[in-house]
Design brief:
alpha+beta, about 260 residues
């Protein structure tokens, strides 16, 4: 069952307004993915409760199987992260194309779908939800059209709760800032394990996870950012890096990157 956005004329409390402006003020200082993830999961989550935020943009007019969509994810749910979507992009692409069509059918207005596990809900939607998202019980879709760039971006908020209850005024104030922050940070590219240099795959003998780690090192990501992207702890990242350095016979990440760029 697709629900219209929850319109409310109830006055927000002073505390609520202070939270909103604090979130907006914090948005101006964000310049990397780690800050973006933390901002969504902490500050934004206080006024827009959610468990997963999936940002998706690209050519929605193309067929899902052509894989022309890009993603960024902020999640507190184990097993749902940006790297997961890179590995299962066809499943996620099909879902995003379906939600994009629902947004178009709703006159490009944001929409809420509650009780995803209800048998009376849309069969087509439940069928296209990626397996890892089926544990979530409600979602909210907010779309942004970029007329100059000729593309569109969907922001899909998923929750473990059965319903989304967000005042329309909050959406109008917060979502433009979420969109602005995402557009000013470099989006993540998938780690192409098969396409890595012969040195990485054969000579250094790195495992698949170690190749992922070194990919993000080459992209300039910190240990904290890599942990957020791969849904692992900083200590786990450090352990992987220690083994990578041993296999490559280096002591610093800069040396590892220099070797990789020259292979």
């Amino acid at each position: 069952m697709m629900n219209s956005p929850i319109k409310t004329h109830k006055a927000l409390s002073r505390t609520h307004w202070e939270q909103i402006f604090s979130v907006i003020q914090r948005s101006y200082s964000i310049d990397n993915h780690l800050d973006f993830f933390n901002w969504l999961q902490s500050d934004v989550n206080e006024i827009l409760p959610h468990d997963v935020v999936l940002a998706c943009w690209g050519d929605f007019e193309d067929k899902p199987e052509n894989g022309k969509l890009n993603y960024d994810v902020a999640s507190t749910v184990s097993g749902i992260n940006t790297q997961t979507i890179f590995g299962e992009h066809q499943e996620f692409d099909s879902c995003m194309h379906y939600l994009h069509q629902l947004w178009l059918n709703n006159n490009r207005c944001w929409l809420v779908i509650n009780h995803l596990n209800d048998t009376k809900n849309e069969v087509a939607l439940k069928a296209c939800l990626p397996t890892k998202l089926k544990q979530l019980k409600s979602l909210m879709v907010y779309g942004v059209s970029d007329l100059r760039g000729g593309n569109e971006c969907l922001y899909v908020f998923f929750s473990k709760e059965n319903t989304f209850d967000v005042p329309d005024s909050v959406m109008g104030l917060i979502m433009p800032h979420i969109d602005t922050v995402l557009r000013k940070i470099q989006h993540l590219e998938p780690a192409d394990i098969a396409g890595e240099s012969k040195f990485v795959v054969s000579e250094a003998g790195l495992s698949a996870r170690e190749v992922e780690i070194i990919h993000w090192i080459k992209s300039g990501k910190t240990n904290q950012e890599i942990g957020a992207i791969l849904d692992i702890s900083q200590n786990t990242v450090k352990s992987h890096l220690k083994r990578v350095f041993q296999k490559m016979n280096v002591t610093r990440r800069a040396q590892a990157v220099a070797i990789l760029l020259n292979k």
